[in-house]
Design goal:
Layout (H helix, E strand, L loop, with lengths): L2 H8 L9 H21 L8 E5 L8 H14 L4 E5 L11 E2 L6 H4 L1 H10 L3 E3 L3 H10 L5 E5 L11 E7 L27 E5 L11 E13 L5 E2 L8 E6 L4 H10 L3 E6 L18 E5 H4 L10 E9 L2 H17 L1
Parallel strand pairs: 1-5, 1-6, 2-4, 2-5, 6-7, 7-8, 10-11, 10-12, 12-13
Antiparallel strand pairs: 3-4, 8-9, 8-13
Helix pairs in contact: 3-5
Amino acid sequence: MSAWVDRLWYGKGRPLWPLYPLAWLYRLIAEHRRRKAFQALTFPIPVPVVVVGNITAGGTGKSPLTAMLARLLAGEGWQPVILTRGYGGRSDHYPLRVLPRTTATEAGDEPVMLAEQAGCPVVVDPDRRRGALWALDEKLGNVMLCDDGLQHYRLPRDVELAVFDGSRGLGNGALIPVGPLREPCSRLDLVDFVITNGGWLGDIEHPQQYTMNLVPTAIRHLASGQRMPLDDLQGKSVMAVAGIGNPARFFDTLRDLGAQVTERALPDHHRFKARDLQHDAGQWLVMTAKDAVKCRDLAQENVWVLDIEARLPDAFSGAFLAAVEAVDQSY
């Protein structure tokens, strides 16, 4: 998301108020698509389906949460399968299972990253219902975990999680294009969990709201995979490169770790070229794990990756697992 849109949407006012007729039209179209998709659903997916998404535009931390949920489910004996659209990928066939040889160009950056982080099957398909049924035919797992699918209503769902950036929240509370909302706030009445990344949203009332923290775990050399302690960033001159939805959070994290940061923000899902990785002699170039899967062939000696994990309280883990188990018992 560009910085100027960020300011217009996530500030206190609504400077784009003349566009309210378009916001009204956007809402009508979104509600029509949702009704039409639900009416077309004939057969449910015969395993629990968990959907992670958001009602705001921009990055909120959905993918790290999805990877964390996959690990949580696997630790309890489930066999999770991650379903994803594969934004930015250019495969010649779908469904596509992400394998070690699958590139970000083919599958998209987030699916390749999720396959590395979650350690479970990842299936890419713009039609995630088709992807889920294919995964079941291939006997890949017994619970479906859809990354960024809150508005993908062709996919039946049993448990929904809406994720927010704790520092930006609902923004100015208006629908696109006046504000950042993809759906009205009333949509939260239908979700099972509200997750806020790095804060608590006082303007949202939900019985199952939890705070998530994205915790840095290591700094990893892109070319060799060598992992270094985070303390090595103390006082280090860093060129921070981020092609993600909310690059400011990444830059702030590096500063919190003691790095002296020069920022290079790029569009979300940016296709990297060698010139994007240029940096001064003596600097480390540090990027996100999402960007790193697209830069393996471009890696220079001083290119590093900041690895992070999503962490939530035990109360959330218990409530989430209970919700999935309840769905499973109903089939």
